[in-house]
Amino acid sequence: MGYVKRIGPVLLTVCLTLLLNGCGETDDGYTDKQLFAMDTYVLLRIGGENTAALETAAEKIGMLETELTGRDADGTGGAARLNASGGQEVAVGEELFGLLEASAAYSEQTGGAFDITTYPLTKLWGFGTAGRIPDDAEIAEALTQVGYQKLRLDPERRTAVLTDGAQIDLGAIAKGYAAETVCGIFTDYGIESALINLGGNIFVIGSKLDGSPWRIGVADPEDTRETVGVLSARDTAVVTSGSYQRYFEQGGTRYHHILDPVTGRPADNGLVSVTVICDDAVWADALSTALFVMGEEKPVGFWRETGGFEMILIRDDRQVLLTPALEDSFEITAGSGYRVEVVS
Ligand code: AMP
Ligand code: MG
What we know:
The chain has helices spanning 51-68, 78-83, 94-109, 119-125, 136-143, 174-188, 281-294, 298-306, and strands at 5-6, 23-25, 30-37, 40-47, 90-91, 151-154, 159-162, 194-198, 201-205, 214-220, 223-233, 236-242, 246-250, 253-256, 259-260, 265-266, 271-278, 310-315, 319-322, 330-332, 339-342. The protein is an alpha+beta fold. The chain has a ten-stranded mixed beta sheet with strand order 2-3-4-8-9-12-17-18-19-21. Strands 1-13-14 form a three-stranded antiparallel beta sheet, with no helix packed on it. α1 (51-68) packs antiparallel against α6 and α6 packs antiparallel against α7 (281-294). Magnesium ion (MG) is lined by residues 172-173, 241, 285-286, 288-289.
């Protein structure tokens, strides 16, 4: 029996020094707000002062946390109500419905690698509680409840039905959606420089106040206090999925939280971290999870065919694969022991 470990997946060049739920000014002209929500540490950093923007954003994150978590035992949010519906048709709020539609599209686009109906497997493996290795029969049984086609959506009535005992878990896109939503709030408030970090789901607005790009550290999967490299970025989402973010160990083997919907087991394809950079934070979040499931070879073909995003793949042999557009903006950490290869 293991203990599921959770850590912030991406280290920022800024330190998280404020108290949780604190709001405070930094020396260099930013105002920070930190909170714990969606099962992770959240940092909202804006250029200048704007308490109303930070409070509005924090409140919205709290609302999304309730609405989007399928794990809420009280069942107050839309996702939890859907999970408790026992196959009945359920009326769904506009935001959740939009995310369910997006999820279905992402599943199609990624050939099923991204699949929010993996929740029965997540529960079986005990991610979110103490971890446990299920036996083959248990996995086979849970797999009968998995498959994105089991989520039926009716856009006209804005209703959803889960068939065959399926249940959903939006853990792979909820933080990306929250980051995008906060970005919208900040933009409405006229904020031109900001960094939003929900446990490694990062969105940067504009540049830093001095005009230089934001600098985002990509965590070393072997030692998350260190970075493999630092990415310079403006006006984009930067999202990392990694096998080091949530896992338990048993018998010297690591069992992590990103599940292959085909095998019902943690994806084991030679990758330890995937970072996706694109201006759509929800797609970036879905993609980082999906590319991790695809493994080290398929993502490059997927990137060539689909385009519209950049990626940093880190293999378990310390090879870092970059898409060409990142060649100048990603700086490997000297002495990290990782090697960079640019894919084409
Ligand atoms: P992320 O950290 O964004 O890669 O999301 C991982 C989380 O999404 C897991 O902790 C599960 O809750 C859920 N999940 C696991 N495997 C998948 C998958 N193949 N597709 C969609 N969601 C998944
Ligand atoms: Mg994700």
